[in-house]
Structure formats: structure tokens, C-alpha cells
Amino acid sequence: MAKKVLCLGDSITYGFPYGPQASWVALAGVRLPCKMINAGENGDTVPMMAARLPECLSRYEPHFVIVLGGTNDAYISEEQDRVLGSLLAIIRTSKARGALPVVGLPTPSLDPLIENHLEKLRASYRRIAAEEGCPLLDFHTPMLADGKPVAEYFVDDVHPTREGYEVMATTAEEFLQRSLEEGWRKWS
Predict the structure, then answer these.
(1) Alpha-carbon span 26 to 5, nearest angstrom
(2) What pLDDT was estimated at residue 75?
């Protein structure tokens, strides 16, 4: 049976502005020996993702949950404690249901204010992933050149272009291929 990967996120997981068929989830799914499930919702914050996770887990029964969020939280200046508490809830709920949570580091933003919030979230995400024993999927670094976001990867301040989604897909594909080859046996 093919492994199922639930990709929980916001519009950057959904594939805005092109739609789910152009998302990093769909692009990676074509090349991977697992079933990629796009659970991206435009406008979602991490607390909103945490609220809808139980239904997604029941519906799809995934082996892995990649959570990629924080951009909308940064945009609305959501309290960091609320975002991090919701991330912990996603991690713990996934584990309790037998799915391995994978923490995605949010892509960069061309907007300095949003990026400032995101950088703080990324640092906390790294810490939480280490404390909870979760793999970390870095979507941030591949979208940079010389430490700055590659403007050609963005259609606006935060949403990827088709080329940006391809970079994300390649990142996810390499991560998942390596992880599947190494074997997450305890989660099988």
C-alpha cells in the first residue's frame, strides 16, 4: 500500500493563484511513490489548520502530515504563542493518530514586515521540531539566493510563481524520497 502524505497548509499549499493542479503537492505527487493529499486552504492560519486537522485525519488516514503554515499568521500579526500552541496541537494530534508529523519551514516573503514575523516563527518551528522529534522540511532556504528571496519565485509578496512551486515540489520530493528510502519503519 502506498504511503499517504497529508499536506496541511494555507494558500501556498493549495497552489494559489493557479489552483491545486499547479501546487507543490501535485507536482511532487506525480514523481513520488506515495499519495500526496492537498489539504491547503486559502487564508488559513495555523490555529485554523489545527481546528480542521481531526477531520482530515479521519477522512484520509495519512501516514505522514506535512504542516506548512505561518504566512497568514504573520500577515495578521497573530500572537506567536497562539501559532506555536496550534503547531504543537497539530504535531501531537498527528502522533496520537499514528501519523508522523513533519514541520515545514515557511517560504520567505518579499514584504519585510511579514518576513520579520516569519523569521521568528521559523526559529520557533526549528526548536519545536527538535523538542518533539519531528522531521523538518525546509521550504525557506531553496527560495533564497545570497540570503535573499528570489523575486522570480513570487507572483506577489508571498505566493509562489509556477517556478517557485516547482522549487517547493523538488524540495518536498527530495525530502520524502530520502525519508522513504531511509524508512520511517516505526510509523509504517
Answers:
(1) 12
(2) 96
